[in-house]
Write a structure and sequence with these properties.
globular, six-stranded parallel beta sheet, 40% helix, 11% strand, 9 helices, alpha/beta, two-stranded antiparallel sheet, single chain
Length: 264
């Protein structure tokens, strides 16, 4: 009798599950494995049909903590492991810019393993100038000066572009737009229009956070549209959708994807 009850419960659960699926009314109109059309952005060093998987902040040369200096992770082993994991781009690298040997080592090892860099650079230095608070103090180089720097970095196959700013507030947008325009002009002068400017937006927040207190009407939709209006080739924003439940993600991630897709 007990086995029959369990069997009936199993059948009941199955029936409820099938009913729930049937009530959703959502039909997938393409077969499994059929690729959907997508827009493509060409990055220097990455084929246009290759899916870009970026790592934020690459292996560092200097680590310090609790009174100890840890050994450099800019090593062959580190980059081999990144490549094995599927990483083909590093979109930030807080290396010591006064140490050209460190920069050379990072870019050389990345090239060896087919990894590209979006590099923050002192010649166009939003990230290092704490631009959210001091945006008026950011100096934008001329297209000619920046093109000369590009040509210097283009000796490395791993150089893909410049990391301009992570999570800028909207008061930075005019200066960032100016920087993007200069990069577009400089990459023409340098002879490679696949060099990319990188700006990564906030995942959400109130008007005070998004605008650094400068625009009470700021919301995330307006913020992302402001990032898009700078003229960059792709939209990027932070998102931390994973929960403590295996296989579960927050719905805000999918909502954000849909919203950014519409804006893009």
């Amino acid at each position: 009798m007990k086995k029959r009850i369990i069997a009936l419960l199993c059948l009941l659960v199955m029936a409820v599950s099938l009913t729930a699926v049937g009530c959703q009314g959502k039909v997938v109109a393409y077969k499994r494995g059929t690729p959907l059309p997508v827009y493509k952005t060409t990055w220097r060093g990455i084929d246009e049909d290759e899916f870009i998987i970026s790592g934020f902040i690459g292996p560092q040369d200097f680590y310090a903590g609790i009174g100890y200096r840890l050994p450099s992770l800019i090593t062959d082993e580190s980059y081999a492991k990144l490549a094995e994991a599927g990483i083909n781009n590093i979109c930030d690298q807080r290396i010591r810019y006064d140490d050209s040997e460190t920069t050379d080592r990072a870019l050389t090892l990345a090239a060896k393993y087919g990894i590209t860099y979006l590099l923050p650079d002192p010649i166009i230095n939003f990230e290092m100038s704490n631009a959210n608070d001091n945006v008026d103090n950011v100096v934008i180089p001329t297209a000619e000066d920046l093109a000369a720097r590009m040509e210097q970095l283009m000796q490395y196959d791993s150089f893909a572009g410049f990391h301009l700013r992570d999570e800028p507030t909207s008061n930075c947008f005019p200066k960032l737009s100016e920087a993007v325009q200069v990069i577009e002009e400089a990459r023409v002068l340098a002879g490679d229009e696949t060099i990319q400017p990188y700006i990564n937006g906030f995942p959400g927040g109130g008007w005070n956070q998004l605008s650094n207190g400068t625009d009470p009407e700021m919301n995330w939709d307006k913020y992302i549209r402001g990032v898009a209006d700078m003229g960059i080739d792709f939209l990027s924003w932070d998102g931390y959708p994973f929960t403590n439940v295996p296989g579960e993600i927050q719905s805000t991630w999918l909502n954000g994807l849909g919203q950014v897709k519409r804006i893009a």
